[in-house]
Write a structure and sequence with these properties.
Helices cover 57% and strands 12% of the residues. By secondary structure, the chain is mainly alpha-helical. It has one domain: hpI Integrase, Chain A (Orthogonal Bundle). The protein has a 3-stranded antiparallel beta sheet with strand order 1-2-3. The chain is globular, with a radius of gyration of 16 Å. The protein starts with a helix and ends with a helix.
């Protein structure tokens, strides 16, 4: 199978995967660590290099913002030279089921613990084995879902993804005409 054919298959899959499907996929993963890795990659739209070997328990905090419980992830930003870190807020009320899985798993860690102390390659292998998906494709999926289901515009995606400008959004999002109809 050629790379072009694989890309087309992934694009077709991405069109039909909803945020609810992510929970189904997460629950099929048996190991809590692998489940948490998958969920954190999805929720934060993080690159595998921004999560493995770099994410510590102290980088995940709970905050109250405007009467909303927010789980804040502070990730290393690998692609932005000026901003070394990016803060990714995940509202608990919108992502409760996924966050509960992660928060339960986090209970076993002290604040100085590295959550995924293995290589990028090992992280990639875990995600590929458990889901059949490329970890970077999960980033694309999350950003597309944020645009479709949460009405994120280009500037919100820039901030969320840690980009320097909105040019990557054209490559990351797979918006279809049916998605436009949902907004009417």
């Amino acid at each position: 199978m050629t790379w072009k054919h694989q890309q087309n298959e992934l694009k077709l899959k991405k069109e039909s995967i909803t945020p609810n499907d992510i929970l189904v996929v997460a629950r099929r993963i048996k190991k809590p660590r692998d489940q948490a890795l998958f969920i954190i990659l999805y929720l934060t739209a993080g690159r595998i290099s921004e999560v493995v070997k770099t994410l510590y328990r102290k980088d995940i905090s709970e905050q109250e913002v405007e009467c909303r419980r927010v789980i804040l992830f502070r990730l290393v930003n690998r692609k932005h030279k000026a901003k070394k870190f990016k803060d990714v807020p995940i509202p608990y009320d919108k992502e409760r089921d996924l966050l509960d899985i992660v928060l339960l798993w986090l209970d076993d860690f002290n604040m100085e613990s590295c959550l995924f102390p293995f290589s990028k390659t090992r992280g990639y292998q875990i995600i590929k084995k458990e889901t059949g998906w490329n970890p970077h494709w999960i980033r694309h999926l999350r950003l597309t879902n944020l645009a479709i289901y949460n009405d994120f515009n280009d500037q919100l995606l820039v901030k969320f993804a840690g980009w320097t400008d909105s040019r990557p959004s054209k490559e990351y999002m797979e918006i279809k005409w049916k998605d436009i109809l949902q907004k009417y």
